[in-house]
Amino acid sequence: MATPPSTLLAYETMKKSRRRRRGAVMVEYTLLLTTVGVMSVAGITAAGKTLLRHYNDGRQWILLPVP
User: Fold this and answer.
1) Is residue 65 part of a domain?
2) What are phi and psi of 4, to 5 degrees?
3) Domains identified in the chain, total number
4) Exposure winner among 21, 30, 49, 66, fewest CB in 10 A?
């Protein structure tokens, strides 16, 4: 029994629609990750000296010979 042409056409249309939605989700996810990454790098860069100073202070306290 052959499938009616309208059913095949509807199936192909659904496949294309699903493919477009997946692509849109992938683009949205990529933009979100890029935004978060850029903001994280900017924050670390802006606070870099303070973070490094706190890291070195903490390291010196940990490495003290006398507790």
Assistant:
1) yes
2) -60, 145
3) 1
4) 66
Q: 64 in a domain, yes or no? A: yes
Q: Side chain identity at 41, as an amino acid letter? A: V
Domain-located, residue 61: yes
C-alpha 56: how far from chain center: 31
Which domain does 54 fall in, by range? 42-67
Indicate yes or no: pTM above 0.85: no
To 10 degrees, the CA torsion angle through 57, 58, 64, 67?
130
Considering the domain boundaries, does residue 21 fall inside one?
no
The Cα 45–Cα 49 span in angstroms is 8
Q: What token pair was written down for 47?
A: 């606070």
C-alpha 35/C-alpha 29 separation (Å) is: 10
pLDDT in tens, 17-57: 777 777 888 999 999 999 999 999 999 999 999 999 999 99
